[in-house]
Amino acid sequence: MGDQKSDDARHLETLDRDLARYSNLESATGYMTRPLVGPGLAFVFIMLAGLFAVLFFGTDGGNTAIVVIAACFGAYMALNIGANDVANNMGPAVGANALTMGGAILIAVVFESAGALIAGGDVVSTIAKGIIAPESMGDASTFIWAMMAALLAAALWVNLATWVGAPVSTTHSVVGGVMGAGIAAAGFAAVNWPTMGKIAASWVISPVLGGLVAAGFLALIKSRIIYQDDKIAAARKWVPVLVAIMAGAFAAYLSVKGLKKIIKIDLQTSLLIGLALGAATWAIMIPVIKKQSEGLENRNKSLKVLFAIPLIVSAAMLSFAHGANDVANAVGPLAAIVQASQSGDFTAAVSIPIWVMVIGALGISFGLFLFGPKLIRMVGGQITKLNPMRAYCVALSAAITVIVASWLGLPVSSTHIAVGGVFGVGFFREWDAERRLKKARREMPDRPALTREERARRKLVRRSHFMTIIAAWVITVPAAAILSAVIFFGLITFAG
């Protein structure tokens, strides 16, 4: 009987060891396959986009094959826009802990899709932003291959930038792709160099302007609220004003940039709309902030509560405007290919079919969901530390800078503005901390000076990220252009 129990015990021990091995194997398999889930789902979406093209474009021999391939490239580009560009809208709110990662993704998916489908531009130029003269392409076939190369090159470049953790301008990526393919197809004379000069200028103008506006508002918040003896009383006075400025700026921003498809609004009218909504918001927010601030302690941490909701709303509005504008980066060249394949006309303006717009909207949402968290964390927390006040300054700078740039007629990048705003906030904090340290040293001359190591430790902007991002911005257009030219020659050789 004892031997029987001993055999049963050994059998159970053996079974437990086997189950443990299977459990370990399952865990190891899950760990190894987890990184493949995102790319796998992305591949499925790209294939579905191709099937979508067959269903809506119809079957027309070789033209259908071209449109299907272009739809796959457009879906790939849309995924990369979601993975890279949307981080600029959501990163500050997540970094400031006003939104969780899940909440940020949900808001971005809803508002990006709404912006793309409701207010997405229904007409785009056959050649993005007038970079290349359409007639220089010669025939529809050359034009189609050039657009195909531009779309794939832009998508590959944005994918690479996301992988290395650099937020880049998808607009500049598409512009570089179109320029490279255009030069490969028709030579340097085909390029609209004055337009390219403006785009090159925007590499400097966008981040500098965004940084200055963000730093200016942070200086206002610090001087008028944070450095005041009675912070809560100061907040009751100034937070309604700041929220009103944000509401007015976003109303004007969306009027100018986000509602082109629904209604045409000139800049002066949009500013009046922003002024009216800002005044109404100020009147509404006075009692709201007064009630919110009741019982708050007189310290900086208490102020964060008052900026949380405006920051969440700003993230949603930025996502809506981004979806309305930047979806064309994914579907503009695709729509041009569809029109050229159907009619052979590649010089007229292109209307984007609804099925093409759906591919762009869904692709941006899927890209954000599958691959966006990496860039969101980087923009929100790894460049400089953000709290709700600092993140508010970044969001507000994005809206105001676009309005100012539209008024001045300057082409700017929303990516450069938002990231420039983060840099501006960080560098202003460094400058302010240094200023206060010098003041304290004048008041206490015997205080020992900081060592070089301590000074380096007190830097509030990570220089490694700063240099990586600036380098990526500078080389985006030429890198996309070279890649596009290589792909164009490859496609022409393959097609021939």
TrEMBL record:
The keyword Transport applies. Signal peptide: none annotated. GO terms for biological process: phosphate ion transmembrane transport. GO terms for cellular component: membrane. GO terms for molecular function: phosphate transmembrane transporter activity. Pfam families: PHO4. The chain crosses the membrane at residues 36-58, 64-82, 94-119, 143-166, 173-193, 199-221, 233-255, 267-285, 305-324, 352-371, 391-410, 416-432, 466-495. This is Phosphate transporter. It comes from Halocynthiibacter styelae.
